[in-house]
Amino acid sequence: MGLLSIIRKIKRKEKEMRILMVGLDNSGKTTIVLKINGEDTSVISPTLGFNIKTITYQKYTLNIWDVGGQRTIRSYWRNYFEQTDGLVWVVDSSDLRRLDDCKMELDNLLKEERLSGASLLILANKQDIKGALTPAEIAKDPKLFCACCVRMCCMFARKVSYKCMIGD
Ligand SMILES: Nc1nc2c(ncn2[C@@H]2O[C@H](COP(=O)(O)OP(=O)(O)OP(=O)(O)O)[C@@H](O)[C@H]2O)c(=O)[nH]1
Ligand SMILES: [Mg+2]
């Protein structure tokens, strides 16, 4: 079940949703949003603030907030929590060195009162890189187990997995 299906059940009447994409820097958030929107991803710089994309899918309007993940700007994430319907946590599955950091930051987010009503999707990105953890391995971790679903995601695959984010 995708993030959209879960939120849809909760908010049957509302057609506009606010999705917050966060995760450590370099995990691939901006790439994912651009790919989904059919935009060029050949030159991408680290996000220093945020980008907003509005995407229409079926009869839903998704306002996707893609927020920069560098350590020095993570404290600003809290400015984007209000009225979030869906939280997408993007993991660089190949970055084993920073996995603890990644878990700790997610753990902190999940303590946030203002995100308590939001559905969580973890995207295990960069599956094309040798040695990357699989979604099952990521989901096994007790700290990440809280997620309603961990989806495979690889933005470098030939077939862009649009459904991994909002599919049924
Ligand atoms: N191999 C591989 N590289 C990827 C994939 N997705 C994104 N990248 C690369 O990862 C790097 C970082 O991607 P971004 O989209 O800028 O990452 P980000 O999470 O937005 O980073 P910040 O804005 O700094 O928080 C870029 O060089 C992308 O080309 C993937 O699925 N596989
Ligand atoms: Mg970015």
From TrEMBL:
It comes from Gossypium raimondii. Keywords: GTP-binding, Magnesium, Metal-binding, Nucleotide-binding. This is ADP-ribosylation factor-like protein 2. Pfam families: Arf. The lineage of its organism: Eukaryota, Viridiplantae, Streptophyta, Embryophyta, Tracheophyta. Belongs to the small GTPase superfamily. Arf family. PROSITE patterns: ARF. One of its GO terms (biological process) is establishment of cell polarity. SMART domains: ARF (SM00177), SAR (SM00178). GTP binds at residues 23-30, 69, 125-128. One of its GO terms (molecular function) is metal ion binding. InterPro entries: ARL2/3, P-loop_NTPase, Small_GTP-bd, Small_GTPase_ARF/SAR. Mg(2+) binds at residues 30, 47.
